[in-house]
Design brief:
alpha+beta; Ubiquitin-like (UB roll); Serine Threonine Protein Phosphatase 5, Tetratricopeptide repeat; 3 domains; six-stranded mixed beta sheet; five-stranded mixed beta sheet; 19 helices; 13 strands; disordered C terminus
Length: 544
């Protein structure tokens, strides 16, 4: 069978067999055009064949996908870069590929953590990185100091007992965040700042509103955990980032509007690199955020008798805040909280303290968390026993009352029947809901399956529907055997094949249906040869 290959402006004929696989055709094209292909740790260079708008897999044969005589296949050379590193997130249980140049391995760990913060939305003071051997990686060292190679999978660990709290922040679940807050005052304030930062990064409006009501300022730096209050020299530069910077990085326009309306100082809030939210939005190309911040920056603030530009208003407000900070008397100075750790507080020092960032769940470290200390109820004796001893007559009357049985009130028969019908109705709704969910779970590929424009509802059932009991038993056993060895029911396999065939968009629907049928029969025949399902596999193949 002769087909034509279109490659980089040339149009060449090839004689192939209908049973030839796509992989064999690619080898013929590679030898004919002398195309250099490669695959190493950094990436790979490979060929891709397109037919009728769909990419062909190497395991398919030419006849399976409906390639006929004198058909034209398009060939492309594609280059795919492999990730330099992988990072496993212990909170979300997902592995993030880091698509960077190989020069990343020569940089410091702090640079990698800056990239990860832009990917996962966690402040840098919330997590640490560990090698596959479990060794903690410090910001001052390079990745090569830990023998990190291309394709290495690192681990992202968070503070013990924080997994559930951070998961609630990622999903924007305010009640879950409130449930897992700490009872320690400094840790509680730090958690609120972290919650506002993550909510600003992902655009969770409800969680942002709650954090602002708790007194967290959007132009306030997230800072570090109170356990690391004295480790100033080893801190990452991004600990000075504020929630407004996170909103500008991710392009959350609604959150930026809420922050600016809450505090106008957000417009001139700078990070460690001296960048304002406007500069950050320009860097990440968020056009809507840039236009809004520009409009607000060059607007005016109106008072009853005067209007001043926003920039001058911000400078006056900053000057007033600094004056309020310097104008404290002695009594106020004694009442202010001293920054840093105090006597009796827990202090974490790199390389010396026992690690507390191992991503333990809230329940596992519950014995050490004051929030998990169980409240013990007083003994049953208590005040009641003292009262009984003081007044024996009251004790006798109380005992008689306790001995008198209390029966439930009588219920009318009509009300009882109505209540019973209501319960049956709710049970039926619950059953229907469960069935609908099961249908949605089973039909994962159903939305991708194209349907013909006109469908006839009043069709007759196929002939095997009225088959004998023996044939029905054979059919059921064949379906059961197919499900056991393939992991999918015949219906799910048919839906999957239809979804794959729908990628051939240039083909009519009936031809897509024929391709799906061939693919389904091919999968059953492959299963038959691999698993040895001769009788049952043949019956299934005949049915298709």
């Amino acid at each position: 069978m002769r087909i034509f290959i279109a490659f980089e402006g040339s149009f060449e004929p090839f004689d192939v067999s209908p049973d030839e696989t796509v992989e064999a055709v690619k080898l013929m094209i590679k030898d004919y055009f002398h195309i250099p292909l490669s695959e190493d740790k950094q990436g790979r260079r490979y060929l891709e064949l397109m037919y009728a708008g769909a990419a062909l897999k190497d395991s398919w044969s030419i006849a399976d996908v409906g390639v006929s005589f004198c058909s034209t296949l398009k060939c492309f050379v594609k280059e795919e870069d492999k990730p330099a590193l992988y990072v496993f997130n212990a909170v979300t249980q997902e592995t993030m590929p880091i698509m960077e140049n190989i020069s990343l391995l020569g940089k410091k760990v702090s640079d990698l953590r800056t990239l990860l913060t832009l990917r996962c939305g966690f402040p840098v003071s919330v997590y640490c990185l560990r090698t596959p051997q479990g060794l903690e990686m410090y910001d001052c060292n390079t990745l090569r100091d830990y023998q990190t190679e291309i394709g290495t999978t690192l681990r992202l660990d968070v503070w013990d007992g924080w997994k559930e709290f951070l998961m609630g922040c990622l999903l924007g679940q305010k009640l879950k965040v409130q449930h897992y807050l700490s009872e320690e005052g400094p840790v509680l304030k730090y958690q609120r700042r972290v919650a506002l930062y993550i909510a600003a990064f992902y655009g969770h409006a409800e969680l942002t509103e709650w954090a602002l009501k708790q007194g967290v300022r959007p132009n306030e730096a997230v800072g570090v955990h109170p356990y690391r209050a004295w480790c100033h020299e080893a801190l990452h530069a991004d600990v000075s980032k504020c929630p407004v910077h996170a909103a500008a990085e991710s392009g959350q326009l609604l959150i930026l509007k809420a922050f600016v309306n809450c505090c106008a100082l957000c417009l001139e809030c700078k990070n460690a690199a001296g960048q304002t939210p406007l500069t950050i939005a320009l860097k990440h190309k968020h056009k809507d955020c840039v236009l809004y911040l520009l409009t607000k920056t060059w607007s005016t603030v109106s008072f009853p008798k005067v209007s001043i530009p926003m920039r001058i208003y911000i400078k006056i407000k900053q000057w007033v805040l600094r004056a309020q900070g310097h104008g404290l008397n002695k009594s106020q100075l004694y009442r202010t909280r001293v920054s840093g750790a105090r006597v009796g507080d827990t202090v974490m020092v790199d390389g010396f303290s026992k690690p507390k960032m191992t991503s333990q769940s809230w329940r596992k470290c519950g014995d050490k968390d004051p929030q998990n200390r169980l409240c013990k109820l007083p003994p049953l004796g208590g005040q009641r026993a003292s009262r009984k001893a003081a007044n024996p007559l009251a004790t006798l009357q109380q005992s008689r009352r306790e001995e008198t049985p209390v029966f439930p009130p009588l219920v009318d028969a009509n009300k009882f029947s109505e209540l019973q019908r209501h319960q049956e109705k709710n049970q039926k709704k619950t059953t229907d809901t469960v069935r609908n969910k099961e249908k949605l779970i089973r039909n994962v590929y159903l939305p991708q399956v194209p349907l013909p424009p006109v469908s006839k509802v009043g069709y007759s059932h196929p002939s095997y529907y009225y088959a004998t009991p023996g044939a029905v038993f054979l059919l059921r056993s064949s379906f059961r055997s197919f499900s056991e060895h393939s992991g999918k029911t015949p219906r799910e396999n048919a839906i999957y094949c239809l979804a794959v065939a729908s990628a051939f968009k240039e083909k009519p629907w009936l031809q897509q249906l024929g391709i799906a049928r061939v693919l389904a029969k091919k999968s059953i025949s492959n299963l038959t040869t691999q698993k040895g399902l001769t009788p049952r596999g043949n019956s299934l193949e005949n049915l298709l």
